[in-house]
Every structure is written in structure tokens, then in C-alpha cells.
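Human: Here is a favour to ask of a fellow structure person. Comparing notes only helps if you start from a blank page. Give me a protein, with the fold worked out from its sequence. Please set it down just below, with no commentary around it:

Assistant:
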Amino acid sequence: MNVLLIDDEKELVTTLSERMEIRDIDSEWATSGEQGLRMIQEQAYDWVVLDLKMPGLSGYEAIQAIKAARPEARIILLTGHSAPEDLDRALDMGADLYLVKPVDIDDLIALMQGGGKQELS
């Protein structure tokens, strides 16, 4: 499994990446939507874990660009403060799932390994 983490919180993406590597999951990270899109254009990822609210390129714009460049990529949104209508809009645009921050690394990995079908309690 190959994962790209995109979030403007550098500490979050570096920590998640380190914890994924410990679990033998290949991961890379970006701290902006623009940087993440450049990476997606150069390499395919199985999963993209994306913050919905970032400065610059918004999560919505990133979802559209990711799906245009790599329609097969699965997207999990990480959000700390989104209204239900924001999440519905993102899911309608092509995101597959969402998790609320702070995210539990084991829950995130379980969702990816289960193909996004596992329910979390």
C-alpha cells in the first residue's frame, strides 16, 4: 500500500508517516495541496489522506484535481471542524471516507487495509 498524506500541519503528517513506516506502509507527505498535486502527477498512490481545510488550494479543489489526475486513487478526508454539509459535498466530489481529527493511526490503517469498508465505532 502506498499512501500520500496532505495536511498543512507538518507535525501531523510527519508523525502519521513515521507510524505508517513502522507498520511497513509506504507513505509520503506534503504540507500543501499544491505540493501534494505535484507529487500525485509524478506517482500513483493507493490512498490520499487529505485535510479538507488548508490555506491555498482548498480540500475541495484538491479532490477534483486528484480525481482528474488519478481517478483510481482513494481519498480519506481528515477534518477537525467541518459541518456535515461540507463533508457531504466532499464525498459527492469523489472523496471516499472521512475521519475527524485527532485521528487514531490504527483506525486510519484499518480503513485503508479494509478497502474503506470497515465501520469505525
